Input
Amino acid sequence: MYKLFFAVAVLFSTVCSGVFAQDSLIYLQNPSFEDVPQANHLPKGWVNCNGDAALAPDIQPSGDFGVTTPAQHGKTYMAMVVRDNETWEKISQKLSKPLKGGKCYEFKIFLARSEKYIGQSEAKGGQANYGTPAKLRIYGGFSACDRQFLLAETNLIVHFRWLEYNFRFEPTDDYTHITFEAFYKTPNLFPYNGNLLLDNASPITPITEDCEEKPEVAKVEQPKKDSVVNPVVTTPPPAPIQPPVAEAKVVLNPNFSALKTEDLSKGQTFRMSSINFAVNDTIINRASYPQLDDLVKFLTNNPGVLIEIGGHTNGLCEDNFCNRLSQRRAAAVGNYLISKGVVQERLVMKGYGKTQPVSAVKNDPKNQRVDVKILEL
Output
């Protein structure tokens, strides 16, 4: 009788542990992107994040645009492009249950590139091949298409056959939605036409191991022809750049709401080092909101103050790319303040690119920052 009870207990424990393990998984709807092959259409379960339905990704292989790569799993897969007019495609959906902030997860998906993807150039007109490699970015957010936090990012997908990519990521909040985005080589001076193929995504699995590993291709090597068509380019080590700018009248991480007009002087600069963005993008990380809200409170309490919002980048990108990115980031901060009720006329948004470093090392995080300067009292 005791042996029977013990056997039943072991069986119950095994079954329950398997159930609990399954319950811990986070599932995607239609992870293999199965549907009727057609251009400018999304498979069931996915949302178009591109605004215009005519610019939606494609269910392939439909034969449209010359794409004939067979699916890795099932019959169809998702194909997304980046365009030479600086637009790119994104898809999104709600997760079966939220990610947990501070917890480590593992995720896998098969990726490839189509050698041919014939369409129209949005910037120049005429026929173009969208065959240039693109990369995959994965975001967590709180609604469809919300790119709140960059969970993971691949290198450029240069290979033409399907390879499985493994990711480990640690969200900073309890994100309810996931967004997949095709994106350019970064940093990149000019946008270009490229494509990215996605298939057979796994459930998102919580793990207890180290979460610092970078995405890697699993089990298979890239074909030799890809290494010839797309040679690997290594980045040289960081080198010293121009001398850093003087740090006069700079206040680090101020408590804005405690400041009064009599504490200020024209030209005084406040460095908001806790304002962070997604990599090579203008998306403000959610962790930056408290300091921005503190700035809103200060501006509300001091209606006569006019400020400049200065965006600054590190020194790793080309001049034009740095200038454009810093200007867009400054505008993103300004738009956040305006959305909270600050009058636009009190704000000047300016991008300085990499022209005003505070460190002589190109990739020093201190160089990538947002400064607030007092223009008028």
